[in-house]
Write a structure and sequence with these properties.
alpha+beta; five-stranded mixed sheet; 23 helices
């Protein structure tokens, strides 16, 4: 018998492996590896944070200031912090994601919405709603709102969400995927997609301006490449000389890389400034807002709803008006022959502009010369239209009270028209503030030789013959545009008479400003009408001369309280005409005559000479004394019931409690469903020996979820001895069912599963509350293992350890 044979049969000494000795040998190595992985994780987190901050600088033009950096920093804390905590506590990726979601809502108020918090950092119902809306609606609003992006509130949470989501994905790749493939380059390379997504998001919602775009791109690329080149370490290079040589070569390569990046960035900056600076493609300029103002009736069509039907109604209160100020309601640039309307946004006329989503700071008007300012506070009372009363040229609109703050996403503003609107309509109790510039008035002779700005406005139908004939007589001998317009204004004021068509007026005055009403206005011996007819007539005359005139409807309070609140009533409604002049701005003309008595005889003079055959426009009204149309058909809001409702603080408190409870119980419910499905599949599916192995797998998974350390690559008996004594019987019976000659019966399987549940219940009693709570949120799946039986083998899930076949099976 040879020595080798003796050693195998027990005749000679045989080396044995002690678990204690193996653990002692592996302990220093595992400690060093853990320390290295911890240091590497911190370096990775720092690099992801730096790249994200560099990329997020592109948000500056859209938000107008640097406050968004606080939101980005908060997002990095949520994303990176949740990943590190999950890796440190051994959480699964699903549980780490749940931690990140809870942190997103918990810290979002302090970092992204600090102006609407409760007690400093506590979230409120409004902030939680804004944080929930940001991932869904902020993208749409960010590219349709005018900059800076201050309102609605969920826009402030967009940088916070982007930084949190992108850093979370990057760190999960580096902490969960990269350690399993230490020699692979693709996991850290794919992790760079997170900061790249932040860079793309900043560009997507940006403006024509760029914050050192070439410099940021060069710095981003340099940091990323240096990190990728150094992250792999030195591998298996054991020789000190070889490690030093590799270190020197990498350091030299890093220096060359940084130098080349600096040179390319500098050269690229000059090239970009000279060639592509004016070719920047901005997403917000390619997207047409969905709002269509033509779906709303022209406010000028309902002029007499205010002047005739409710002249004494207080529409709103205004504080901050000065003597002579007029309140602007709507600016109308297009005339269809029936009414003055807002220009069709589908025509894309730059001169008319469009009503787009806007924040608090509204876009500026290029045609304005102002030397004074106004700060207007408005409180809505008996006014319910969509048009926002304002003064001058607004620069800042702050929706402060009533239902307006919650409906800030309905606010639209047109810089060219210097006016805004709320698509859902203003309501009683709504309040807002406006800061505005007031256009200077021209002094005598200042505009006598000034040219009118050439603006493209929509085409209008042919004017009535009577209006054209009267226009020719008004401007005869005048060559200057301003003097021609003043001649029209003075003539209408001198020849016309004022009448709203009310019962107190001596003669009737028909409402409307269509072509038939304009023809009638100039066919009578005397001109009779109010601001609606005179402003429309002068605007049509100015268009006949080739001037881009527009009609403005608003209010001119007769008594203004400079140091207090002015009540604006329906009788204060008015309309005027505006024409733009070079190097000055929009000049207002008011052709409406004074309120004088109208002569009784308004019949036409007999005409001795026939007039030219001119096709007359169709009549727009059937009855002369009937209003043309109502201001805007409004749906009657249902009157609220007199039933008692809960106080608002109770609703706020209930929702504030419901959100964290939902964040706690919903994941718990999902994990419970997954565990129940796992158990049902193991207990009832497959042959008997697999169901017996499933009892072992289910029990060992539940022990692991309670925090017990399960040794890898061990048999069931070894695992039971290392985890808990109560598992020994389950391990023996599972091995007997898998490797024995007889299959277990249903009664034996039921008893095995019952003993497994009892073992887990006993273990739960010995652990603390926090370990039991962690076990409820944990979900563990053992890897696929091999089960041998009777010389054949199959693959199934759930067996802990390696089930090795006996020699007779091999």
């Amino acid at each position: 018998m040879t020595a080798a044979t003796k050693g195998q049969t027990g005749g000679g000494p045989r080396e044995t492996s002690s678990p204690r000795r193996d653990r002692a040998t592996r302990a220093p190595q595992e400690t060093a590896t853990t320390s290295l992985m911890g240091a590497r994780s911190l370096v990775d987190a720092g690099v992801i944070a730096v790249l994200t901050m560099v990329a997020s600088l592109g948000f500056a033009p859209a938000y107008g200031s640097g406050w968004f950096l606080l939101a980005v920093a908060g997002g990095l804390i949520v994303g990176i912090g949740s990943s590190l905590i999950g890796a440190r506590l051994g959480l699964t990726r699903v549980n780490t994601l749940l931690v990140a979601i809870a942190s997103y809502f918990l810290f979002g108020t302090a970092f992204a919405l600090p102006q609407s918090d409760l007690g400093g950092v506590l979230p409120t119902l409004a902030t939680l709603a804004d944080l929930a809306r940001a991932p869904v609606f902020a993208w749409r609003d960010a590219v349709t709102l005018s900059t800076p992006l201050l309102e609605p509130g969920h826009l402030a949470a967009l940088p916070y969400f982007v930084a949190a989501a992108c850093s979370l994905v990057s760190m999960m790749l580096l902490l969960w995927v990269a350690p399993a493939r230490p020699r692979a380059v693709w996991p850290p390379s794919v992790a760079l997609l997170g900061p790249l997504a932040v860079l793309a998001s900043a560009i997507f919602i940006g403006t024509d301006d760029s914050v050192a775009g070439v410099l940021r791109g060069g710095a981003f690329a340099a940091v990323a490449l240096v990190w990728l080149s150094w992250r792999r370490g030195f591998g298996n290079v054991a020789s000190k000389d070889a490690r030093r040589a590799l270190f020197r070569s990498r350091a030299l390569g890093t220096g060359v890389l940084v130098l080349v990046a600096a040179l390319l960035t500098t050269a690229g900056g000059f090239v970009a400034a000279a060639t592509v600076a004016d070719q920047r493609v901005v997403a917000r300029e390619q997207i047409t807002p969905p709002f269509d103002p033509l779906s709303h009736t022209s406010p000028l069509a309902g002029f007499r709803e205010y002047s005739k039907l409710k002249p004494d109604a207080v529409l709103f209160d205004a504080t901050g008006l000065q003597g002579g100020d007029r309140i602007r309601l709507a600016t109308l640039e297009s005339y269809s022959g029936k009414s003055w309307q807002i220009a069709d946004p589908q025509q894309s006329l730059e001169a008319a502009g469009s009503y787009t989503l806007s924040g608090r700071v509204v876009p500026s008007n290029p045609f304005v010369t102002a030397s004074s300012q106004r700060h207007l506070d408005v409180t809505i009372r008996d006014y319910s239209d969509i048009w926002l009363p304002s003064v001058g040229v607004p620069t800042d609109v702050n929706l402060t009270g009533g239902s307006l703050p919650e409906r800030s996403g309905d606010f639209r503003f047109n810089a060219r028209a210097s006016g805004g609107l709320v698509t859902s309509g203003l309501r009683e109790g709504d309040t807002y503030e406006i800061a505005a510039l007031v256009q200077d008035l021209p002094i005598e002779g200042q505009l006598d030789n000034a040219d009118v700005v050439d603006l493209a406005y929509p085409e209008m139908p042919a004017a009535p013959t009577a209006l054209v004939e009267r226009l020719q007589s008004y401007v005869a001998g005048e060559t200057s545009p301003y003097l021609q317009l003043k001649a029209i204004e003075n003539a209408l004021m001198a020849e016309g008479y004022f009448s709203h068509g009310t019962a107190s007026d001596t003669v009737p005055s028909r409402a409307g400003h269509g072509l038939d009403r304009m023809q009638e206005l100039f066919e009578l011996r005397y001109l009779v009408g109010d601001e609606e007819q005179y402003a429309s007539a002068m605007a049509i005359m100015a268009r006949q001369l080739g001037f881009p005139a527009r009609v403005v409807m608003g209010y001119a309070p007769e008594q203004v309280t400079s140091d207090g609140t002015t009540e604006v009533r329906g009788s204060d409604v008015t309309a005027w005409v505006e024409v733009p002049f070079e190097r000055f701005g929009w000049v207002a003309f008011d052709p409406t005559p004074e309120r004088t008595d109208v002569p009784v005889n308004t019949t036409t003079d007999p005409q001795s000479k026939p007039k030219a055959q001119v096709r007359q426009p169709p009549q727009t009204q059937e009855k002369p004394d009937e209003l043309l149309t109502s201001a805007d058909e409004r749906r009657q809001e249902e009157e609220p019931d007199d039933e008692e409702t809960l106080p608002g603080w109770i609703l706020t408190l209930g929702v504030s409690l419901a959100v964290p409870l939902a964040l706690f119980f919903v994941p718990l419910l999902v994990i419970g469903i997954l565990k129940r499905r796992r158990r049902r599949k193991r207990q009832h599916e497959g042959p008997p020996h697999l169901r017996a192995a499933g009892a072992w797998s289910d029990s060992i998974d539940r022990f692991a979820e309670l925090g017990y350390a399960v040794p890898p690559r061990s048999t069931r008996v070894q695992t039971a001895a290392a985890v808990h004594p109560s598992l020994a019987s389950i391990a023996d019976r599972s091995d007997q069912a898998v490797f024995g000659d007889e299959l277990p019966t249903d009664e034996q399987l039921a008893l095995l599963w019952a003993d497994a549940d009892a073992s887990v219940a006993e273990a739960r009693k010995t652990v603390g509350f926090w370990r039991r709570l962690r076990g409820r949120f944990a979900f563990r799946r053992r890897p696929r293992a091999v089960s041998w039986r009777r010389g054949t083998f199959g693959v199934h899930r759930g067996t802990a350890g390696n089930d090795r076949p006996g020699g007779e099976h091999v």
